[in-house]
Design brief:
single chain; about 220 residues; alpha/beta; Rossmann fold; 2 domains; 3-stranded parallel beta sheet; elongated; disordered N terminus; transmembrane helix; Peripla_BP_I; Receptor ligand binding region domain-containing protein; transmembrane; ANF_lig-bd_rcpt
Length: about 220
């Protein structure tokens, strides 16, 4: 279960009309970078410490408490189950919800009051292909952690039909942090240009193991 942090004292900013707008931010335990970025983009900061360890139910109650104060919008969180609870409340009360997480493109989204700051899957996919073309890689191995990675990399995966790029697709071992057998197999196959799509926690583990295989261009 992910820990949740709720900014108990709202960060606020004053509009050009002289009205103070309250925009509470809600972040998961791993959303520290988003929390810092958010704090830098408002003019006045709340000073209370965030509350940790809230369940989704308690978090929803806390979000309602914040919305009762007349806030202009809600920022975050990034955790999937929590963001759904917050979005449901924002929809009901017609309060804008600022999201910062990746959304699956096939989800039937009936949410009205939200804006997503996370790049859409098509933009990410094209950006990855642009990087490969910039470095003029002719053979690339794509290593993904879960099925969503294939969506984010679909432009690159479709590249062989349009460009002279050879693509090999592999998946990280499920239920294990040990990627060394996979790295050994890639090194044996002379797969030196590799793109990983995984969480930052997994990326940290993989990069540490990659130090033993310095010939990989990751």
């Amino acid at each position: 279960t992910s820990l949740l942090c709720l900014s108990r004292k709202n960060d606020s900013t004053r509009s050009s009309f002289g009205i103070q707008l309250e925009v509470p931010g809600v972040y998961s335990e791993h959303g520290k970078s988003a929390f810092s970025y958010y704090r830098l983009n408002v003019y006045t900061f709340g000073r209370n410490n965030p509350m940790n360890g809230l369940t989704d139910v308690l978090f929803s109650m806390a979000a309602c408490d914040q919305l009762a104060l007349g806030v202009a919008a809600v920022f975050g969180p990034s955790h999937s189950s929590s963001v759904s609870a917050v979005q449901s409340i924002c929809n009901a009360l017609e309060v804008p919800h600022i999201q910062t997480r990746w959304k699956h493109p096939s989800v039937d989204n009936k949410d009205s009051f939200y804006i997503n700051l996370y790049p859409d899957y098509a933009s990410i996919s094209r950006a990855v292909l642009d990087i490969v073309q910039f470095y003029k890689w002719k053979a690339v191995t794509v290593v993904y952690e879960d099925a969503t990675g294939l969506i984010r990399l679909q432009e690159l995966i479709k590249a062989p039909s349009r460009y002279s790029i050879k693509i090999k697709i592999r998946q990280l071992p499920m239920g294990s942090k040990d990627a060394r057998p996979l790295l050994k197999e890639m090194k044996k196959g002379k797969e030196f240009c590799v793109i990983f799509d995984c969480s930052y926690q997994t990326a940290a583990d993989v990069l540490k193991q990659c130090f033993d295989f310095r010939s990989l261009d990751i």
